[in-house]
Amino acid sequence: MTDRTVLKISGSDARDFLQGLVSNDVTKLDHGLVYAAMLTPQGKYRADFFLVPDGDAILMDIATSLAPGIKQALMMYKLRSAVEIEETDRPVSRGLGMPPDGAFADPRNDAMGWRGYAGQPGDDSVDWDAVRVAAAVPESDVELTGDSFILEMDFERLNGVDFKKGCFVGQEVVARMKHKTTLRKGLAQLSVNGAAPVGTDILAGDKPAGTLFTQAGGKGLAYLRFDRANGEMHAGDAVISWDDAR
After folding, report:
1. Do 156 and 40 share a structural domain?
2. Which residues form the domain of 237?
3. What is the pLDDT of residues 46-63, one digit of tens each?
C-alpha cells in the first residue's frame, strides 16, 4: 500500500508514552494489532492508525497524509521520555481471509481481512472501498476528518476506543459523549440508487441531513443527522435511504 507510512516508536518508555496519548489500550498489543486514534485536547479526531507489536518496539501504520503531523505531535509530547520516533520503509500489505504467517487480523471488523508488515504479498484485486462500505468502516481523510468525534464515527463498534484504560488526550470529551449524551449525528450506512461525488450534501426534502461519502455496491457511508433521516433523501442525483432509520 503506497498510501500508508509506518512509524517506529521505540525505547523503554514507548508503551507508557503511547498509553497516555491514544484512544485504545496499548497493552492489547500482546494479542495483535490495536486500532486507535489520537485526538485534539478538545476531543476531535486528529488521526487514526494501527499499532503493531514489533519486538520491543511499536510500529504505527498510518495514512501517509497524516504521518508528518502525527510524528511532529509525538515529538512534542515525548519531552524527556525514553522514546525514539522514526519513519521506516516498512511496506504495508493486506488481504482477505486468514492472515498469512507474521500478519495480523484487522481488529476493526472480520470482513476487513489482515494486514502485514514483513513483505507478505497482498491482494491488489480486492475492491477495498466496497469491502469497507459493506462493513461500515470509515477511512482516514474521507469519512474521518478534523471535525469528527470518534464515538460518532463508531470507534466503539470498530474496537478503536477503551473506556477502562485511563486518561488520554481528549479522553474527557469522549467519556462525556459516552455517558452523558445521546448521539444525534454520526456514521451511517445508506442504500444508494445512483451516485454522487464524495462530500455531496444530503437533503431530506429541503433540509440538510448530512454528507454522503464513499459508495459501492448500492451502499454508501455518510455522516448523518439521525432526526432528519427518514424516508427518501437525495444527494445530488442519487436517491438514498437509511435502512436503520430510528
Report:
1. yes
2. 184-242
3. 999 999 999 999 999 999
